[in-house]
Amino acid sequence: MKESNTRFKMNKWFIISIPVAILIAVLSVVLFLDKNHSFFRTQQSQEVESFKLLEIEDSDEPGIISQNQYVKTLDTRIKTRQLDYTIVYYAKMFKLNPAVALDIAHNLTDNYRSAEYNTDFVISTPGQKWRYGPYMSYEAGIVEYVRELYNFPQRFNTTAEGTRLTNEVTVTDTYVNGHIMLSNGQTFEKFLGHIADLYGMDKYMALAIVRHESGNMTSYLSKYKNNIGGQLVNGVGVSYPTMEAGIVAEVVLLKNLFDRCGLDKTSTKDLYTFSGMYVHGTLSEPSPDWTNKVMFFVNQNHQNDPF
């Protein structure tokens, strides 16, 4: 009889221990993903502990009644970390202070909880919101937010001195098999293609414009100022701190120009009309010469497919 009772108790504890063990295993996996996952897979090991990443209070410990709520809290925490890591990743490209970039983003999106933000993915002050979005993804919104914070800090009620870590320009001159290798581990072309894809832009055309404007990446602006599109402000070439920042800035500029002119950025069918805006600043003066040269590189890009 005693042996029977002992077996019963052992079976009872064994049955109880199974769901407990499963729960511990699931939570361990979730916490591991929370710690290591990033929107941009090439930068999974970011050192961002000191950048004021947003923390979610874990006051709801798992229990019989609160399991669903606990899982929802973990989901929110993972999403929050993903967005924080993505902002830090792009802020580093522009040599912005990650803590400042995060603080502004948290304030403008109610710590990413704003219903409007989760619909249009725009990070902006209310008075400037008309300029941006809606975007196709969180990452697309973050990319333009960081680029705007670098170019126009006043739109976020701050200054360049208050947002930038340095104005130093890092020259990228590492080549592998004829391709520029970026610090994020990608080739120049693949990273440009990724940014173009974020906005539904024809990446073959975007790369062709860059190749023409930069003299196939041989111009002074592209080599020493990371200005790959010949961007000028009051006749002076714009400077970007890294090649990655220059790629982001140029692709976002092209996207914005196509959109504001009401032209199709998904193909080359409006390229001739667009040439007027890019070369002369007006749609009424298209440039056949510019268009032909860009189309030469478009065809070459399709043949070689560097993406």
Number of helices: 12
Q: Biggest β-sheet: count, sense, barrel?
A: 2 strands, antiparallel
What is the CA–CA distance across the termini? 74 Å
Assign the CATH architecture of the domain at 183-304: Orthogonal Bundle
Low-pLDDT parts are: 35-49
Shape: globular
Based on CA atoms alone, the radius of gyration comes out at: 25 Å
Q: Let me know the number of strands.
A: 4
CATH top level of the domain at 183-304? Mainly Alpha
Give your account of this protein's structure.
The chain has 307 residues and is mostly helical. Among the domains are: 79 residues, no CATH class; 122 residues, Lysozyme (Orthogonal Bundle), CATH 1.10.530. A two-stranded antiparallel sheet has the order 1-2. A two-stranded antiparallel sheet has the order 3-4. Strand 1 and strand 2 form a beta hairpin.
Briefly characterize the structure.
With 307 residues, this protein is mainly α. The protein has helices at residues 2-36, 67-93, 98-108, 117-120, 138-151, 160-163, 188-198, 203-213, 220-224, 243-260, 271-280, 288-304, and strands at residues 175-176, 179-180, 232-233, 236-237. The strands form two sheets. Strands 1-2 form a two-stranded antiparallel sheet.
